[in-house]
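YM 10:42: Aspartokinase sequence, as discussed on the call
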Amino acid sequence: MKVFKFGGASVKDAEGVKNIVKVLNDVDYQDLLIVVSAMGKMTNAFEKIADAYFYKKEELPVFIKVVRDYHYDIVNELFENKEHDVYSEIQNLFIGLTGFMIQNKSTDFNFVYDQIVSVAELISTKIVSFYLNISAIENTWLDVRECIKTNSDFRDAKVDWKLTEKSIVTKVNPQILYITQGFIAANEHGNTTTLGREGSDYSAGIFAYCLNADSLTIWKDVEGVLNADPRYFNETQLLEQISYTEAIELAFYGASVIHPKTLQPLQNKGIPLLVKSFLNPKKKGTHVSDGKRLVPETPCFIVKKNQLFLSISALDFSFVVEHNISEIFNLFHRYKMKVNLIQNSAISFSICLEDNFNLIKNLLAELSNTYKVVCFANVSLFTVRHFQNKDIEELEKNNKVLLKQLTQETVQIVVQ
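YM 10:58: structure's back
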């Protein structure tokens, strides 16, 4: 069995959904499970609904209308029969969303976020599944929450691998074509959870692992994995082959084409990962497996925008030692900060991190009780694998460097 994953860019409009039919007809789609993300930027749109539910209830009808109109515009273009079941299915999902917001008693934002934002994935896969069926690609819609089981860390749930593998093997018949969701799962109580932003690749990796898939193909709007993000770098090069280890390194440092959690389960079972273009499905793309580290051998550039850079020192100018660092990291954990780079000297501790849960004000307030803290917002973290000196010089040119760290293979530079 094979696993395909189509992201939001591939289904951002009616033409994108139609193109999935073209891709499947161009390749072999027998014995296949397809993971589909929310359409376009709908995860962001549903996040606005979650925010409004807590903080701006008067704006809820506006945000709900935006997502409703967006999806119905796509459905109206795809389905000539206005009595098709897709209309009632989508309507039922919106009714369920409204019902949840009326009946909910929880004040836990993360719990409510998962229940609301997950609806985007459910709607997207309903539309794709129904459209494939009327396009002579018979398939079965599968609720991923019956398959991937997690703990109750809402918005960043951890997979229960033993229970998940048992559920997937029970639910999935390798001889049937399935359409299912990425990003979402369920805990032991049946509550919807999510696997973290951009987690649909991870969902596909989980299915591939549990099904002992022949391969996982991630379909993107780029030719494959490039050595740099074309949004930020003028010259880019396709990486034809990447080893699992190198791909994990690139993903860890923030390469956006592959989700960091996706690769390890694939490596554990030697399942090849293909990254290909849904615009040019017959092109070779990128192949990730055992083998050469990188083909071609070339520097790889990764940039993370909107980072925070903290410089932390003791109020009494004493040394920052082990117990201080332990205390600081406990606070990072409590406030769910993602740490990307650290460096310490005798009297200070510097760190580059991401605030994915908008808790930086709380963190700074608590840190400031014990330490002197200087915070630089909206900095960029550049990482270069297999760098050359000219690469460093180019990144430092016309930028204020806050921190630079080098190892034999990698340089990381925080710039303001």
